[in-house]
Design a protein that fits this description.
This protein has 389 residues and is an alpha+beta fold. It has nine helices and 17 strands. Strands 2-1-7-6 form a four-stranded antiparallel sheet. The protein has a four-stranded mixed sheet with strand order 12-13-17-16. A three-stranded mixed sheet has the order 3-11-10.
């Protein structure tokens, strides 16, 4: 018995009413938690990562989410609505065709097949190839400014020898006489007034609708072969951890002349040892001395563009945040850049030599500080200034 899939909303830990932003936030958190790069050799984490990706791919797509909400996992199955699977086959009971009955309620087929098989897709119809997924890890700076990366993957491609037909050169496939090319046959069950018919894959052609008597020697009748490819991926500036780049037509080979599938490159961003990021905003902590905070100083502030000079005002308090406009992350849609926010941290010396200690004690005496006072030092300072006035 196949393993029962978990509810996609449960996988992401969100409610069924979750917004797009809530879905994205939950996905990013879980994708980072279970990412293979952070859990090397952990098969459980790898399975969780695939499950999270699958859930987000469905729920982030409006059409797929609507089908999932209505029909569950069956609604987003690739064979949903196709003959011989899901809701596909036509069912007859006596003189009643349940396919017509369901069709009158639901207005025809679902997903090209629907109830009753009236819109059943032929196995010989063009079909889009599989969507492939790869994971790519880049640096903080590469995510900020964009980059080009070369990835390696194995994908199915149309056989050059038979051009996807599966037949040896100079030969053609025969239409299956049992199913007449439909890929399915009708099987009657029951008897009398309770006789009904179901659709099942044709056993002779294995549901393909055709018989290949002389298979292609290179692909052995499959019509496609596996090849190793190296593909250059352009990563846009501003991409964030957990986002993906879609390359159309770079996935698996299509069937029966159908288009190739897509390639999804899921991006993970390595943390920076200097900066923190939130959207397009960059955060940086700058540590200064007590003298620099009190007297003011000209500081050198690292940014993702390089160092910039900043004049720190005299009397700057610990925890003060100032903004460097336009020094954040470029917007992934190309509309401007965010800002960098710098938080001032004041370093307290861990040890003092005798000269430094005497100078600091003299300063404290000049300020009227009581070194044994347990009250609010800042409040006492301002009170003393008021009294002097």
């Amino acid at each position: 018995m196949p393993e029962q899939k978990r509810d996609y909303y449960e996988v992401l830990g969100v409610a069924k009413t979750a917004s797009e932003d809530e879905l994205k936030k939950a996905y990013r958190k879980l994708a980072k938690q279970y990412h293979p790069d952070l859990n090397p050799g952990d098969k459980t984490a790898e399975a969780k990562f695939k499950e999270v990706n699958e859930a987000y791919e469905v729920l982030s797509d409006k059409d797929k989410r609507a089908r999932y909400d209505q029909f569950g996992h069956a609604g987003v199955d690739p064979n949903f609505g196709a003959g011989g699977g899901g809701f596909g086959g036509a069912y007859d009971m006596g003189d009643i065709d349940l396919g017509d009955l369901f069709g009158s309620f639901f207005g025809g087929g679902f997903g090209g097949g629907g109830f009753g098989g009236g819109g059943r897709q032929s196995p010989n119809s063009p079909r889009k190839g599989d969507t492939l997924r790869v994971n790519l890890t880049i640096s903080f700076e590469e995510a900020a400014f964009g980059c080009e990366k070369e990835i390696s993957l194995t994908r199915s491609e149309a056989c050059d020898t038979c051009h996807g037909t599966g037949c040896a050169p100079g030969t053609t496939a025969e239409t299956c006489p049992d199913c007449r090319g439909t890929g399915v046959v009708r099987v009657q069950r029951g008897g009398g007034a309770f006789t009904f018919a179901t659709s099942a894959p044709c056993s002779r052609c294995r549901g393909t609708g055709k018989l290949i008597h002389t298979p292609c020697p290179d692909c052995r009748g499959e019509g496609s072969v596996k090849r190793q490819r190296r593909i250059t991926v352009t990563i846009p500036a501003g991409i964030d951890d957990g986002q993906a780049v879609s390359l159309r037509g770079q996935g698996g080979a299509g069937q029966n002349g159908g288009p190739a599938g897509d390639l999804l490159v899921h991006v993970s961003v390595r943390p920076s040892d200097k900066f923190q990021r939130d959207g397009t905003a960059v955060y940086y902590d700058k540590t200064v001395s007590f003298a620099q905070a009190a007297l003011g100083a000209r500081l050198t502030i690292p940014t993702i563009d390089g160092d910039v000079a900043y004049d720190l005002p005299a009397g700057t308090q610990p925890g003060t945040v100032f903004r460097l406009r336009g020094k954040g992350i470029p917007s992934v849609n190309g509309r401007g850049r965010g800002d960098q926010f710098v938080t001032i941290r004041v370093a307290v010396p861990a040890s003092l030599n005798s000269e430094q200690r005497q100078a600091l004690e003299a300063f404290a005496q000049a300020m009227g500080d009581d070194l044994t006072d347990t009250g609010d030092a800042r409040k006492g300072f301002f009170d003393k200034r008021k009294k002097k006035k």
